[in-house]
From TrEMBL:
Organism from which the protein derives: Paraburkholderia dinghuensis
UniProt keyword Transport present: no
Keywords associated with the record: Hydrolase, Magnesium
Protein's recorded name: Phosphatase NudJ
PANTHER family assigned to the protein according to its UniProt record, in alphabetical order: NUDIX HYDROLASE 23, PHOSPHATASE NUDJ
Pfam families reported for this sequence: NUDIX
Stretch forming the signal peptide: none
Cited PROSITE patterns: NUDIX
Cofactor(s), names only, from the UniProt record: Mg(2+)
Source organism superkingdom: Bacteria
Cross-referenced SUPFAM superfamilies: Nudix
Nudix hydrolase domain boundaries: 7-137
Record carries keyword Hydrolase: yes
Amino acid sequence: MNEDTWAPHVTVAAIVERGGRFLLVEEHTPAGLRLNQPAGHLEAGETLVEAVVRETLEETAHAFTPEALVGVYMTHFGKPGESGATYLRFTYSGSVADQPEARALDPDIVRTLWMSADELRAASERHRTPLVMKCIDDYLAGVRVPLEFVHVHAVGPRSGHSGGPQG
């Protein structure tokens, strides 16, 4: 792969805890059925918060309200010496409404489920990535960063501004 065209994949994930149980999805993947937090890719024009709200709704039918950033995680998949694929995952914690909305889930999602951390640990061979448990462990350890930690520069008409980004 040409180094000039390499770019990491930016993803978001949601951690929702209710009564000691976590909202998860069971989804079809190339490796079979796997467990994951509601998660997906950042789309053009979205903020990270908008992406995690959208992905959670699409995958669980629950409206998600982000409350904190749990962490930013980097994973690289590929063989040594090959470019492979690098993922930057922004994981948010928050809450959802008690009842899901009446809507279809993304086609790859088989079902949503609520699992305790111990149940999730016992099913580690079914995790989509090792980040599934790492994010839960960080959340349980109390890791929280205010949402304002991630700055969003709105791109729009350049009223009186000349030149490129200032850093």
